[in-house]
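Following the same procedure, sequence and fold were stored together, as reproduced here:

>
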Amino acid sequence: MFGIADYGAFVAAIVLFLAIPGPGNLALITSTSKGGIRGGLAATMGVIAGDQVLMWMAVAGVAALLSTYPTAFHAVQWLGAAYLAWLGFKMLTAKPGAQPILNIEPRHYFKQAALITLLNPKAIVFYMAFFPLFVDPARHQGLLTFGVMAATVAALTFAYGLIAVLLTHHLAERMRANPTIGRVLEKVAGVFLIGFGIKLAISK
């Protein structure tokens, strides 16, 4: 279909990758717990926007450029690691009753999630390696094939994000009755963000 080999397997692989814990998932959960459904959906759109940029950069061969100039790759890698660690540190040091680390207005949740996604240069390399696995050389239709793949990733990400947001919102409503739980979860999220930042910084 549209030059994609085994479209069903392609969809299944994307769903599997979406479910793997990572900074994007953490951004959705944290944004929803702080900003409700609007905040969560804004973060979902931010992840989608970031992913689309990375996918088309991969298609354009940016991954090859980063491989040719490793200094540029590592600079972006460290920038992403520092950003995640900074968010995590702010969460860990936030005092009870302080303004949320992830800002209140939906556009801020969008920007935060988009930045978290964009500042992971490994994602470009991932898409560069992943897309060719599902391209049928005999039926490839150029940009149309990659466009359908990108649209599929966006649609699946939105569906996954919507489910995650609704579930998180439901749980958040229950936890608001006990503020201590919310503070503990914020600290845990901070630790995970710092951990993701360290992992990104030391990964080869």
In short: The longest helix spans residues 23-59. The radius of gyration is 18 Å. The CA atoms of residues 76 and 121 lie 6 Å apart.
